[in-house]
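Risk register update: the risk that structure generation would not scale has been downgraded. Supporting records follow, first protein first.
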Amino acid sequence: MKFDRYFRLANLLTFSRLLLTLPFILFFRFNLMAHASVCFGLAALTDHFDGKIARKQGITQFGSFLDSFVDKVLVGAALICLYLFQHDKLDEGVGLIPLWMVIVILGREFVITCFRLVCVAKSGAVISANRWGKYKTTSQLVVIFIGLVLLIFLNESDYVVQEHGPIYFLMYLPLILTVLSGLEILYGNRKAFSV
């Protein structure tokens, strides 16, 4: 077994994104939004650069799987943090984004991941990310980062820290792209549903 293909630069960058997720969660939890933003921003940059490097060196199935998995972990952690955000200006049990948004976005990821696994088990066909999936991931990372920056500079603002503030409305872009990209994958691979 050739281990060098697992320790390529692109995969190491992807793994560093996973390592940045824990400090991001801790900084967010202790309301150190500048630190959380830096961690999340660095993680988002690794997503950009690992893709460029992988395309130059050659994309591997392991690298594609790792990249997709780590994206889901990072975005899922950030969404849960935004949902669980507590502030004295918010009612108890209310976050910056509602639970249903978290469920829809993470639910889509779960359904598509299961669908991909079924396709691999059934026919050996690997469904790779399409342009809608790339738009979806980019929008998620950018909107979450913008939300974190807003929390740095406007944390005490009634306008930002409220149940239906700017972060809530910004999240509609990745939410819509997430649903559309999931539907596109299911429709584009609808033959997999036939027995």
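Supporting record for the second protein:
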Amino acid sequence: MMYLMLVVGFVLLIKGADFFVDGSSSIARLLKIPSVVIGLTIVAMGTSAPEAAVSITAGLAGNNDIAISNIIGSNIFNLLMVVGLCAVLRGVTTDKNILRRDLPVNIGISSLLLIFLLDLKITRIEAALLLVLFTAYMIVVVEQGLKNRTEEQKEESSLSPGVSVIYIAGGLAAIIAGGNLVVDNASKIAETFGLSQNLIGLTIVAVGTSLPELVTSVIATRKGECGLALGNAVGSCVFNILFILGISGVLSPMKASGESLADISVLVVSAVLMLIFGKSRGRTSRIEGAVCMMIYAGYMVYAVVR
């Protein structure tokens, strides 16, 4: 039964992401807002809903290893696998705002998280600071997005406002339901093999909760919405650290294992790598995407055998 529900979860993720991308892209065109802004806000927060549910619930239940490793693992997956796969499929053009603002912000907050975790815990004060930074970041993104409205949107391919909202709401509901099914059943399957909480959070749960980002970004890339795809991946990373860990830490101070320091170091390196690749000719090429995926595969091997 667990395997059947796992398949059902994947189906909901794929179809939900398809509708969600169509609805979000349509809203962006109707409002003449760059799709990258939609990706950094609505899409990023929507596809990060599984991470939020898992980490907040795990934190309140005292399963801090899963809560923190889930976020770190999800962000590494977003940067190396999600962006990497999208680049392999089509090559990902780097939006200038993501290059100048969001990628550096991602490096900064990943480094800040490393500093916070040097004592293997996130206090309520540190968590509150993350929430303050999240609020400031959202204000900047939305304000700049509204200033950058353009008349060059493809309005002829836009859905009506009502249908767009239905697509977004229905797609988001399917994404959340699918993500929960995948995580719950994948975790049960993993536990039958005696895996640790930290390893489950870093691998099975992290990958499972990141499937919405993966599916959404891949579908967006195939539809030519590279800005939305990259914005979704990077925006999800920012949302995961600033909002999810912020909320989780304010509700309940969090403790991490020593292994988390190595994992967060990998995250910081991955964030820097994204900026380097993004700056090279203004796009992440297919070769660079393949490099990202190989690095992730190597990291997974390390996580399992350590």
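Confidence is low (pLDDT under 50) at residues 151-156. On this basis the risk owner (M.S.) recommends closing the item.
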